[in-house]
Amino acid sequence: IPVDPFDLVIFGGTGDLARRKILPGLFHRFCAGQMPPSARIIGAARTDLDHDGYRGIVAEAIEEFGGNLGGKAQKLKDFLDTVFYVTIDAQGEDGWPELQEFCKQKDRIEAFYFSVSPSLFGDLAERLHHWGMAGPETRIVVEKPFGRDLATAKHLNATLAAHFSEDQIYRIDHYLGKETVQNLMAVRFGNMLFEPLWNSQYVDHIQITVAETVGVGGRGEYYDKAGAMRDMVQNHLMQLLCLIAMEPPARFAPDAVRDEKLKVIRALDPVLPHHITRGQYEAEQGAEKQHPSYREAVGDPRSKTESFIALKCHISNWRWAGTPFYMRTGKRMSARSSEISVVFKETPHSIFGADAGRHRNVLSIRLQPNEGITLGVTIKEPGPGGMRLIDVPLDMTFAEALGDDSEHVDAYERLIMDVIRGNQTLFMRGDEVEAAWAWTDPIIEGWESRGEVPKPYPSGTDGTTDSHELMRRDGRKWREVS
Ligand code: NAD
Description:
By secondary structure, the protein is of the alpha/beta class. It has helices at 16-31, 51-65, 73-80, 96-102, 121-130, 150-161, 179-189, 220-245, 254-266, 294-298, 411-421, 430-450, 465-472; strands spanning 6-11, 40-45, 83-87, 109-114, 139-142, 169-171, 203-211, 276-281, 284-285, 290-291, 308-313, 325-330, 337-344, 362-368, 372-380, 389-395, 455-457. The structure holds nicotinamide-adenine-dinucleotide (NAD). Nicotinamide-adenine-dinucleotide (NAD) binds next to helix 1. Nicotinamide-adenine-dinucleotide binds at residues 12-18, 45-47, 88-91, 115-118, 120, 143-145. It catalyses: D-glucose 6-phosphate + NADP(+) = 6-phospho-D-glucono-1,5-lactone + NADPH + H(+).
């Protein structure tokens, strides 16, 4: 279904994020007929370019990051007709009159994507207001990182709130735009089967793993000031935790969902120091590969920033009291994989004898690669071998069976279309972000005050030995990263 005509201004339209995600995503929506031909995309950045110069950059970005373009040459040409450019200085006056000229057309939705350093968010908000472009219907989209602690997040929220109301601010967390994350909500709240079991009485524990094989790469300078806690846990893992743990909202509506997520964050207990382990990857030397260590990559031989973290936390409410939530994320791990696993308790008694063992069901929500949801169920091993039990995965995604093309819709393109539709359900609200920092800050302050140094772990492995010990102490195991 096409969205209404819109103008989307991309501040930072020549940057990495715009070229890799935003512009190819918009092109896909254009090809799918969702972006109306009268819509306009206006790149706005510091680089001095004219419209055609920018169109060249957009075409290159789509060729490089837009997937298979076979047979889409005409579409690309038509798409480029919707693209414009303004050279602008977020901190000065250059370019603002030209942008204002673009934004005069009042028959359409207007959205501004802040795909620039967060240090410019305030400048952009102020200038949009000053130049009369911040109308009551205007939407702004802001990228992570949203602050580096509670104080900076509050300051950023206050700066944006000075010019825009909360229902105009779309804080992106692209994990929420993934098909499977939405499917998780459909599975949880669209079936009678799961909700009665979704509590500490039946769930043994929950694991969330976001593993990357890449190192810090060219982001070393930014990453070393952030670390895995700020870069991944405070936002992405926390959002996944909320969706898995929240109470059923009364409606699938923005504030109903976000109210429930906020309650989860507020119910999180402080994390005990011995329930967290941090690591830094070591250099990898192989016949073909040679990767620097974390400290070499960030250029600081004494860096105390973590590239891996594993922790156990508890949610103090009726539903989850006593059920541990384990989260881990890191770079240079053995495989690229993001998965949430709900591990149910063992059957209380085996009627098939001690040899058959007691089995557990595991519901796995896989975000990447191969997005999908599977439920591990125990069945009889087929054949004449007697009553032997095996665990098999029950696929609950059925994307192929339904001929569904949803897997091709990237999280960014889905979220941008939600901005145009005015649907904030999959965007973080200001109070959620602040509550997440309020939980994260004391943990980081603890490391700093104790002068704690992350432990080394070999590249290509699944983190520190302490992270395995964290599970072993509880008689549990991390699921394999694959
Ligand atoms: P980038 O450095 O590649 O691009 C920055 C853009 O901002 C450029 O287009 C540049 O011209 C523009 N710019 C810089 N100063 C300006 C000024 N004074 N006035 C006008 N324009 C100015 O950055 P990026 O990687 O595209 O990241 C953009 C934002 O998205 C950042 O907040 C980043 O943290 C966030 N983000 C990026 C990624 C990613 O994959 N690149 C992922 C998540 C979040």
